[in-house]
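REQUEST ID: PR-0412
SUBMITTED BY: lab tech R.K.
PRIORITY: routine
TASK: structure prediction, single protein chain
INPUT:
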Amino acid sequence: MIKTLKLFTLLSFLLQSLAVSAGKITLKNGDIIHGELQAIQKDNIVWSSNIFGDITLPKDQVTQFSSSTILPLSTESYGQGSPITKGTATSNCSFELKDELKEQLSVHCDTGEKNSLTMGNPSLDKLPLDDLTLDNLSLDEVVTIKARPAPPPFKGDVKFGYNQKSGNTDSEELDVAISAQWIQQQFRHELGLAAESDSSEGDVTDEKYTADYQLNYDFNDHWFTYGQVKYEKNRFSAIEEQYQVGAGVGHKLILDNELHINAQLGATYLSTKRPSSDSENGSNDKDIAGRWALKLDWPIPNSTITAFHHHELLWIVDAIDDNQLESSTGIKIPLFGGIFSEVRYDFDHVSEPASEQKHADHEWVISVGYKW
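STATUS: complete
OUTPUT:
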């Protein structure tokens, strides 16, 4: 029994070792590094070593490699102005279609022994089948985009901020916000809930509640349409209560510096209740408005900090000068596990406030949260 257990353990270890070392790269000096390909750049190859982590190797020092990595292909791969036709390059490599779905492209490079690299490029399904083979393509002409892991089907976070002051003035501030996103095939559901309550000397000075749901349909990795329903209540603001129903189109983009951009443009129906004052009665307005929303999230290089800026601008179609803006700018700092700290500056502006109400609200917020 013990011998069988030892044999099983040894076999498991060997299988794991083989799985980890599925790919290998050979250098001109004879060194072999096991791992997997991460990206092919203009002059370098980024290789994920089982031992050393990600390393950058000059192309001219690489003799051969094999990898099962799936990477999107850059248009730079064919060389500027080079047509995608047979027999147009100068080395012993070739592209070929892998399957009938036309979503997987294989690169086979023969330099002493066969090396293969699999890359995905769905845009190539519009090209004729005969044009999907390249003979004698040099490795110097191949450039890939580093693959990014698929987003988790469900993620979210909860943030909690609390501040209490006593002495000459007794005050209390409480902020709670929950956001979640879940993915069902091409549909992305986004939900946001927030509550804020401030009091001074026992009197409530600020009270705000927000609920926001957005359904997105992704056409591809970049373009999507959305439908949105939003409710906001704040009886101490220039807008006491507002319902919002709208739809539009959006674009997602991740730049080379890892800046995540999410831009949205659409139209929305607004039902707005403005507070009354000593000098005038409140109002209930029904309007059609344009909507512009932007989300910027940037993981700062060589750090664990993420900087962000999110804003939403609404402008009334019949009165362009009548608009409202909500924005949040700050940084998110991971602490341990899924716990993080957030420091942000919130700015809300209404161009047409009710009488005796200010145009803008400003607030600095420090909160602690948990993401999953």
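NOTES: DSSP finds one helix and 22 strands in the chain.
REVIEWED BY: pending
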